[in-house]
Amino acid sequence: MKSTDNLAAEANARAQQHAAPHRTRIKLCGLSKPEDVSLAIDLGADAIGLVFYPPSPRSVSVAQAVELVHDVPPFVSVVGLFVNATPDWIREVVCNVGLTLLQFHGDETAEQCESLAGVAGLPWLRALRVAADTQPADLVKSALNYSAASGLLFDTHVEGYGGGGKVFDWSLIPAELARRAVLSGGLNAQNVSDAIHRVRPYAVDVSSGIEVPGARGVKDHARMAAFVRAVRAADAE
To answer: How many CA atoms does the CB half-sphere of 1 hold within 13 Å?
Structure first.
């Protein structure tokens, strides 16, 4: 007769055999045309990102954003990216555009993020820019500081605020933060599989890696499709 411990071990082994593989969530960011959003939805993206930072070549107006989100179906998140935004700007966008999540990508403190999210009445992500001299302990400290965030987006520290197409050292992300991690920074169809295998992030975020080379803000539909295929292939391995 098998012992209770043996029966429990067998049950656990069977559960692992039949467990669904991890599905890395995908956010396609910096979309600015209805056909880009339509394709992202058809490809099965979990989230689309709209940039509300006028200096960015990927920025959209409130009127554009209203058109872009008009046909977004349920369960596809619409993420609004803001950089050092005022409460009035947050309020104007949220009152007109059906956002489901805020992304703070500037120099906002934890207190400012919580205050701005309170204005919107929405959950939020905090982008953490990873520089060459960043240490894992620095990221752990930041994660604790931004503990109220729904997730942490790890991006490469570049001049300006993201979208530079530069990769940082993924090994800097501590394993204990992977479950909260949205990995960004220079991802594309060629390197995202390696990134997923090494970091095991909850989600990946791409913008410049799905654009026409040399045309910032102009999405390449073939690259969008290739990126999604590469993520799904990595999950299946």
So the answer is: 2
The DSSP letter of residue 121 is: T
Distance CA 45, CA 55 (A): 26
Would you say residue 183 lies in a domain? yes
Q: For residue 112, what are the CA distances in angstroms to 39, 124, 149, 161, 182?
A: 34, 12, 12, 17, 21
Report pLDDT for 143. 93
Q: Average pLDDT in the 111-135 region?
A: 95
Please compute the mean of the pLDDT values over residues 69-91 and round it to a whole number: 96
Which pair of structure tokens corresponds to residue 185?
A: 């920074």
3-state secondary structure of 199: helix
| Within-domain flag for 12 | no
Number of separate domains in the chain: 1
**Nearest alpha carbon to residue 30 among 222, 165, 189:** 165
The pair of three-digit structure tokens given for residue 54, joined into one six-digit string: 């006028």
User: Which CATH number does the domain housing residue 59 bear?
Assistant: 3.20.20.70
Give pLDDT tens digits for 4-33.
Answer: 555 455 545 454 444 556 899 999 999 999
Of the given ranges (51-60, 112-121, 162-171), which has the lowest mean pLDDT?
162-171
The parent domain of residue 33 ranges over 22-236
Residue 118 resides in a domain: yes
User: In this structure, is residue 94 part of a structural domain?
Assistant: yes
Torsion of CA 137, 140, 144, 149, to 10 degrees: 150
CA distance 214 to 44: 26
The whole-number pLDDT of residue 237 equals 86
When pLDDT is averaged across residues 33-50 and rounded to a whole number, the result is 98
Catalytic site positions: 29, 155
